Amino acid sequence: MAKEKKVEQITDMEVDFAQWFTDVCTKAELVDYSDVKGLFIMRPYGYAIWENIQKILDGKFKATGHQNVAMPMLIPESLLQKEKDHVEGFAPECAWVTMGGSEELPERLCVRPTSETLFCQHWSHIVHSWRDLPCLYNQWCSVIRWEKTTRPFLRGREFLWQEGHTLHATEAEARKETLQMLEIYADTCEQELAMPVIRGNKTDKEKFAGAVNTYTIECMMHDHKALQSGTSHYFGDGFARAFDITYTDKNNQQAYPHQTSWGMSTRVIGGLIMTHGDNNGLVLPPKIAPIQVVVLPIAAHKPGVTEAAEAVVERLKAAGVRVKGDFSDNSPGWKFAEWEMKGVPLRLELGPRDIEAGVCVAARRDSGEKVTVPLAELETAVPQLLEAVQQGLFDKAKRNLDEHTYVAHTADEVKDVIENRGGGFIKTMWCGDEACELKMKELAAECRSGSISPDKLTGASFTVSNLGAFGVTTFTPIINPPQTGILGVCNIETRIRMKNGQPEFYPTMNLSLTYDHRALDGAPASRFLQALANNIANFDLLLAK
Questions:
Q1: Which of 109, 121, 392, 492 is 20 to 30 A off residue 297, Cα-Cα?
Q2: What are φ and ψ of residue 100, in 5° steps?
Q3: For residue 470, how many C-alpha atoms fall within 13 Å in the half-sphere facing its CB?
Q4: Which alpha helices (H) appear in 277-410, and where do they start and end?
Q5: What is the pLDDT of residues 425-461, one digit of tens each?
Q6: Based on C-alpha coordinates, what's the Rg of the chain?
Q7: Residue 526, Cα to own-chain centre: how many angstroms?
């Protein structure tokens, strides 16, 4: 972060965090307000950020076998009411169409808040045999949810998102899909958006309407609050039964398929702002920044300066860098503030003395650090600097998460974190009872994922042996005092236990587990899990994959 504030029209986040967020959204030209409350105009710069995120996610979806489709925008009321829990969960947020032209419609039509019912109706028409499964679909669209309180990106009445919907022959396949997509979201947040995440299993009260399990990734913002940044739901066969979706299995028996859905929306752009932004405006990770580098000629009126800056722009374009040259007649100071406001990761300054010396000056948006770059090394030095900015943003956000995550054994300790330590994430005990969850919400304002007793979190001990045959060769401590660990790094928030030879997932624990996913791919996976289960005494196996 730059030490000196250069943009006075942005409210300091320390003064009013909510107003700071709104100022950044508008001053960085991400959004504008329309005449309808809660319906925001996404301006070109804001939409370009979403396009980059969309491209990354779409590539990952297709790499895992998913296909894009397009469902209708309107849902007949009778269709929406087929799944009781689903309609009750969304009824308060539905927007209804009652007129077609000048005529009243015979049945109200809901403007889609989500599309589970539309996919189910479609599948009831096309799925007949096990050969028709799995169905791996995704659609990019907007949805309407009639929120009472609205804010740009975070809570709009209309927002852009992707919603994935899949249908599977077995529970195991559907649960694997659910966690696979959660990991895609987590990987995208951490690798491309530089936002470290906590994975969690939502409580019954907070899970998606109609879901058996809802898994979430939560990111910590500058103000130490959580932002739900992506969700993945396992539905079981509830929707299939409601919509009479059946198929003939390999044994020539009629069966109900199992369903999932998962989504990430433009809310994640709000998360980007609140994770990385500062009092000078937006700060964007290079991997999703519409403009990665801005080139500014200094003393452009002097001979050769503009031409040299244009040459730098062309060279970087040829090297695959998203670059823009600012050749306007605004002053250098104005340009510095403008591009800092827009969060461009790297600024290159080029003046007469720089040209004479064969260098340019590079300024990092994340730290304000300036370095001299030889012009002869542009094509290698600039990508390295961009990678350094990307990693620097992640490291800073990870420090914020680690330094504001606490363990509390009592309600008083929870209260102390909230009142005296500026808030944050709290690992604490929960019995699983909804009344206790509501009490915790009163105390802590938000309780999203359960956790086991902290004394077990820090005092459990177990031994795992004979893992070399499964590709695990390095052991790292997991909890204290442990005797083992697994190669790799992965945060997990979900329990798994072996039941009838199959993994069963359930909430209540936050812990860190490391493993190498390559060691778990394919046939060795089940043997690996069984080896762990056989060697863990009085402790459940934990896995996030």
A1: 392
A2: -120, 105
A3: 23
A4: 305-318, 332-341, 352-357, 378-403
A5: 888 877 778 888 888 777 765 433 433 222 222 222 2
A6: 26
A7: 29
